[in-house]
Specification:
The protein is an alpha/beta fold. Helices cover 45% and strands 20% of the residues.
């Protein structure tokens, strides 16, 4: 059997429901070959045997090598500002009127944690002075190397380039050339390894008021997009909101959400 990159694609999909849609073929091959080089291999055939011999351990290493991890604090600032100033207060007021002072947020495809900690800062700034609010952020990603970095919570100056100065002072300690999230900013965040397109894995992640899943749809094929949207729909509480990346839309993928304008921007809301 002549093994090539397509066989690697099939292995990833069959074993982990993971596809390389959205990555150019050149980039796919480059990253697979980089992983092979780390193992001292040059041929796909040898790596194919190694994948089968080392099961889930090497499968995870390959997924880590292939996932896109670009992120930074307060990315897409206008959307976050509208969330903080309009969407969050509206949802909190409705919950408080119903006697519910709990807010749950999912940060999907959280990579190295910058977005999850950004959301923690926003929630603490907007609700931290209010008594008896129970705030939690569940941050999920399939890449275990990124989750390890997220758990450490220390970042370069590049990651905090859009961070307002007062938040930098309030929520970060300078450790050498790194900016490390203080205990207050880390407290609401929990990190989990999960494939967001795997319905079985996602059954334990339900009951959210808000889901941020930004720029993941770009890397999924049409079937996976539809699956993901329905999984996220069931992960939300009624009236909860889904936030996507600025170039993403689900209008052609699914009609389960309604598009509503809250404040200055439109958001996807579960009826």
């Amino acid at each position: 059997m002549d093994i090539n990159l397509e066989n690697i694609h099939d292995f990833l999909f069959d074993r982990a429901n993971f596809t390389l849609f959205g990555l150019s073929e050149v980039l796919q091959e480059t990253r697979v070959r980089q992983r092979m080089a780390q193992l001292g291999m040059t041929g796909f055939g040898d790596y194919w045997k190694y994948l089968h011999a080392n099961g889930n351990d090497e499968l995870q290493e390959l997924i880590n090598a292939l996932t896109v991890t670009e992120t930074y604090f307060f990315r897409d600032y206008d959307q976050l500002a509208n969330f903080a100033e309009e969407v969050l207060p509206d949802r909190a007021a409705r919950k408080e009127a119903a006697g519910n002072r709990r807010v749950r947020v999912m940060c999907g495809a959280c990579a190295s944690g910058e977005e999850a900690y950004t959301l923690a800062i926003i929630l603490l700034e907007m609700m931290g002075d209010e008594p008896n609010w129970d705030i939690r952020i569940d941050a999920l990603d399939i890449n275990t190397a990124m989750l390890d970095r997220a758990g450490i919570g220390c970042y370069s100056s590049r990651s905090i380039r859009d961070l307002p100065l007062r938040y930098k002072i309030k929520y970060f300690d300078v450790v050498g050339d790194k900016y490390c999230v203080k205990a207050e900013g880390r407290a609401p965040v929990r990190f989990y390894r999960a494939n967001l397109t795997d319905a079985a894995q996602m059954r334990s992640h339900r009951g959210f008021d808000f889901i941020f899943c930004r720029n993941l749809l770009l890397y999924l094929d049409e079937n996976q997009r539809e699956r993901l949207i329905h999984i996220l729909y069931h992960s939300l509480e009624p009236g909860g909101c889904l936030f996507l990346g600025p170039t993403e839309s689900i209008g052609r993928v699914s009609k389960v959400f309604r598009l509503v304008k809250i404040g200055r921007q439109y958001v996807y809301q579960k009826a």
